[in-house]
Amino acid sequence: MRRFSTKLMLAAGVSLSAASFAGPAAAQEDLLKMQANSADWVMPTGTYDNHRYSALKQITADNVGKLQAAWTFSTGVLRGHEGAPLVIGDVMYVHAPFPNTVYALDLNHDGRILWKYEPKQDPNVIPVMCCDTVNRGVAYGDGKIILHQSDTTVVALDAKNGAVAWSAKDGDPGKGETGTSAPMIVKDKVYIGVSGGEFGVRSWLSAYSLKDGTLLWRAYSMGPDKEIMVDPEKTTQLGKPVGPDSSLKTWQGDQWKIGGGATWGWYSYDPQLNLIYYGSGNPSTWNPRQRPGDNKWSMTIWARDADTGMAKWVYQMTPHDEWDYDGINEMILADQQIGGQMRQTLVHFDRNGFGYTLDRATGELLVAAKYDPAVNWASKVDMDKSSPTYGRPMVVSQYSTDRNGEDVNTANVCPAALGTKDEQPAAYSPDTGLFYVPTNHVCMDYEPFRVSYTAGQPYVGATLSMYPPKGETNMGNFIAWDAKQGKIVWSDPEQFSVWSGALATAGGVVFYGTLEGYLKAVDAKTGKELYRFKTPSGIIGNVMTYQHGGKQYVAILSGVGGWAGIGLAAGLTDPHAGLGAVGGYAALNNYTALGGQLTVFALPN
Amino acid sequence: MVKMPPTVTKAIFLLLLVNVAAARADGAGDPAAITSEGGKYLDKDGNPTFKIGPDGKVDYYSYAGFVRYSANCLACHGPDGLGSTYAPSLVDAMKRLSYGDFLATVAGGKRDVSTAQTLVMPGLAENKNVMCYIDAIYVYLRGRADDAIPRGRPSLHDDKPPAYAIAENECMG
């Protein structure tokens, strides 16, 4: 079941168009229409374009200071809570990390439980999940709630009563293949990604039938053209066809078979272009010396046909990664005026510290600029179209862990492997034309060394130490970004990395959470703080908003954990102040403890 | 099964037996280095231990332990062995665990299930990246637990002993 022939892919495409007059088309119209209703929050990303912007405007810059906690709900799980709940009509759907409990809550009765679903999973999946047992949320489509479990089981639940409609197994946790990402539903398909870049998993994106859970196609991040669903003549990178064996040619021998390139980020969809977008993660191992070549198509932005899965264009941001700058972060689809011309753009804040603006129809690179001034591993991205290194980062040799070699510690590389931003999604406000980006402000020492591969065992190959940039004490910033120019408009420093997804609203307010547990509201124009409330645990979830009974609510999951729970629970060291001198960077566990709670806010009546 | 130095294999075997009779760990005992074997220091009971010079220079095992710990254990147990939101601090745990307890736990894994949490550690017996360096990781964590090795990368360390390099190549294959 791991290989899919072109014939099968084409067959899937054909059967789709033949059937498109029936149920599937209705599901698509439903979701396209439903996402435009700002009273609901129908998908993990809010809308297909991943703006995380709401037209609701009862809560404004003037009155947000009066916000109060309206009701709260405990998930009963004490692990990192990423993602956000869905709201559809009178019902809120709340998910939890392992064991992946799902609750349907009645909004007419302060979150009374309508139904609860808790899958039974083998706990042996827990230690093969890199960086906590997080789950980034459930998806809705065609009357079903789709849950992607830790053990990679995909299960469809009846949205009315939680009854299982179908179930499918996407991967094998015994090989380090695990599930953390939120599904995305387009038309009659459910897209599912996989985690396991630190276990040498050759990763993929799967498309399942929303109706019955049949696997329709699977597109790998590396391997033969057929398996990565790339057309050598038609699939382009920076305007040129990728040619035959575009992935295989960039790996030594069979290394692509354990090549990584995980797909656990957020997906977006453009209904006009009929393309879905996502990023692939780091190549395995973290030791670059052990895998010579560009390691395509790890670290890549993918644009695939939403029906057939065939790649329209690709762009590899960090060829031959040497720092774990996993490329999975979200693709935000916004139309912007660039160089006097309206462009259909895709904006992506990569782990590598560059904010990319591309033409999402063609994959043309328009802007690539550092969104944290501390970024130092590359001087810039080559924007000269006639240059042989066009589109590639200009690596600063001092920070090249490959050049410095195995068993050598490369110091003061910025950003750290966490990236200038990790999965925590940014928001875009069409009102201000700005992107609101939660960032990490952390650098690292990186020492690669030889590792051996065993299926299902960690396959890492580097040792890291992380700390704030030299001379600074804040480990995060919440910034407003102009993606047309590639410039920071304002920047609010935060003591810890900002690991919460942002929300922009028509009320001129932008929301985000902090690792200490604060929900914060800031002015969309200036970044001035307007409101803060300390929730029971650190926030790594995404802020969402909805309207019920004519009233606007804002909701956030608290529950510290995830990768942020690894490094920051212990506090980062400061090598510049001498070993052991950590007082300046007080540990996060002085501020917050484990939790798992939803807090819902509203203005007083 | 990864091919390990015979002393390690023997110790795991013995401790698995001992564990049945005595579930409580008795700690590692006095860490003072009494002898050395090809760059590896041993305490009075013959268990691996650290050796720190007056200038803070650490023995090679302690240093290699820091490197291998950080690559293979940090993702759950946090930087410098300090624990994370979902795995315990090994700086604390090593205050209780004997060398044998440590080897048995690493090789066999552990499960701690309560109403609040399900904590699971995998058995790492098959993982060469861990088992070929198990004594180094032990020595490093022992030094952390005894507050002899500070947080972060040891700034000075002994050169790689030839015996270490030979054993490493044999084990990693």
UniProtKB/TrEMBL annotation, chain A:
Origin organism lineage: Bacteria, Pseudomonadati, Pseudomonadota, Alphaproteobacteria, Acetobacterales
GO annotations of cellular component type: membrane; outer membrane-bounded periplasmic space
Note accompanying the cofactor annotation: Binds 1 PQQ group per subunit.
Annotated organism of origin: Limobrevibacterium gyesilva
Chain positions recorded as Ca(2+) binding sites: 198, 282, 324
Similarity section: Belongs to the bacterial PQQ dehydrogenase family.
Signal sequence extent: 1-27
CDD domains: PQQ_MDH
Sites where the protein binds pyrroloquinoline quinone: 82, 136, 180
Cystine residue pairs: 130-131
Keyword annotations from UniProtKB, A to Z: Calcium, Disulfide bond, Metal-binding, Oxidoreductase, PQQ, Signal
Protein name as annotated: Methanol/ethanol family PQQ-dependent dehydrogenase
SMART domains named in the record: PQQ (SM00564)
PROSITE patterns: BACTERIAL_PQQ_2
Positions of the Pyrrolo-quinoline quinone repeat domain: 41-411, 500-554
GO MF annotations in UniProt: calcium ion binding; oxidoreductase activity, acting on CH-OH group of donors; pyrroloquinoline quinone binding
Active site: 324 (proton acceptor)
A Pfam family that the UniProt record links to this protein: PQQ
Cofactor: pyrroloquinoline quinone; Ca(2+)
Database matches in NCBIfam families: PQQ_enz_alc_DH
